[in-house]
Specification:
- This protein has 349 residues and is α+β, with helices and mostly antiparallel strands.
- It folds into 2 domains: 2-90; 109-133 and 169-348, 2-Layer Sandwich (BirA Bifunctional Protein, domain 2), CATH 3.30.930.
- Helices cover 41% and strands 19% of the residues.
- The chain has 12 helices and 9 strands.
- The chain has helices spanning 2-18, 22-33, 38-44, 53-90, 109-123, 137-140, 172-181, 226-240, 294-299, 316-324, 337-340, 342-348, and strands at residues 127-128, 134-136, 165-167, 188-197, 208-219, 247-254, 257-266, 283-292, 307-315.
- A 7-stranded mixed β-sheet has the order 1-4-5-9-8-7-6, sandwiched between helices.
- The radius of gyration is 38 Å and the shape is elongated.
- It starts with a helix and ends with a helix.
Length: 349
């Protein structure tokens, strides 16, 4: 049986040496090492051997198998290298050909507006502040003069994670955090831009949208007044939407300011004459603003007899639509590179 094993090994190695393709190599592998292969048949016949002979024959079969497997692996590696070489030769790159143009990305119009707003207010002495998007009920509502059960909460029915934590419904929560953190009671001039979340059931609103909030707090002796708010907003609107825009303040209600105002700008499309954009009124609502409510000051560590200030807030998508004359808000969320790439040119203009 030892001679039979040596003969099988010799024949296998000779056949492997002569093989010129992968398919034939697989056939040789099955012929000698497969379930019905010649070496396997030798192992099956070991039952007829004496107990003394079985270990010797088994050892010889294993050695023969190892040598055959090694020869097959070397041949397979050789074929793989040959195939790779053929592929490389076939797919050689012609470096003299002109390169393919890579499409360049573009800043999103909302991000452009955020950067422009932050640059403007930083130049006016404001700080850019950030806050968590997962907010507590305390900072999102209660410290902004919206206690539990307040009817104004119904407009901001939102996404609660627990009874205490929710996705923030407004960036105003950052104002409360900024006031509390300012233990030395130095003047505050801050803006915060970021995402906010509210449950909306109609087709004209999104469950996620951007807001920018501004807050100014100082000692009353410095007389931070409604005139300062109006002047600040005029600079803001004229810089962002157009230098010919005019502002109009309408009395309104916000729990965190008193008095409160809705701020309109004259329609930049028709110049205030009336068109489909402004619904024939000549005005477009863009902001909410007012003098900080005494209760908000008190709840966030300030004596309303000694300190005062103003706050304002607006939607980022709305500003982007006005600035770039985008007719449909859905374009802002489509991530179409053909749409986004237009704004490099628009900013240059």
């Amino acid at each position: 049986m030892q001679e039979q094993i040596e003969k099988i090994k010799k024949n296998a190695l000779e056949e492997i040496e002569k093989v010129q393709e992968t398919k034939t190599l697989n056939e040789v592998k099955v012929k000698y090492l497969g379930k019905k292969g010649e070496l396997t048949q030798v192992l099956r016949g070991m039952g007829e051997l004496s107990p003394e002979e079985r270990p010797k024959v088994g050892n010889s079969v294993n050695k023969a198998r190892s040598e055959i497997e090694k020869a097959i692996e070397e041949k397979e590696e050789k074929f793989a290298n040959q195939e790779l070489q053929k592929k490389l030769e076939k797919e050689t790159i012609d470096i003299t050909l002109p390169g393919s143009k890579i499409k360049r990305g573009s800043k999103h119009p909302v991000n452009r507006v955020i950067e422009e707003i932050e640059d403007l207010f930083v130049s006016m002495g404001y700080d850019v502040v950030a806050g968590p998007e997962l907010e507590t009920d305390e900072f999102c509502f209660e410290r902004l003069n919206l206690p539990k059960g307040h009817p104004a909460r119904d407009m901001q029915d939102s996404f609660y994670i627990t009874n205490e934590y929710l996705l923030r419904t407004q960036t105003s929560a950052v104002q409360a955090r900024t006031m509390l953190a300012n233990t030395e009671k130095t003047p505050i001039r801050m803006i915060c831009a970021g995402k906010t979340y509210r449950r909306e059931d109609d087709a004209t609103h999104s469950h996620q949208f951007g807001q920018v909030e501004g807050l100014v707090i100082d000692k009353k002796e410095r007389n931070v007044s409604l005139a300062d708010l109006k002047g600040t907003l005029e600079i803001f609107v004229k810089k962002l939407i157009g230098k010919n825009c005019e502002l109009r303040f309408r009395p309104s209600y916000f729990p965190f300011t008193e008095p409160s105002y809705e701020v309109d700008v004259s329609c930049f499309k028709c110049g205030g004459k009336g068109c489909s954009l402004c619904k024939q009124t000549g005005w477009i609502e863009v902001l909410g603003a007012g003098i900080v409510h005494p209760n908000v000051l008190k709840m966030n560590g300030y004596d309303p007899e000694k300190y005062g200030g103003f706050a304002f807030g607006t939607g980022l998508e709305r500003l982007a639509m006005f600035k770039y004359e985008i007719p449909d808000m859905r374009y802002l969320y489509a991530n179409d590179i053909r749409f986004l790439s237009q704004f490099d040119r628009k900013d240059e203009e």
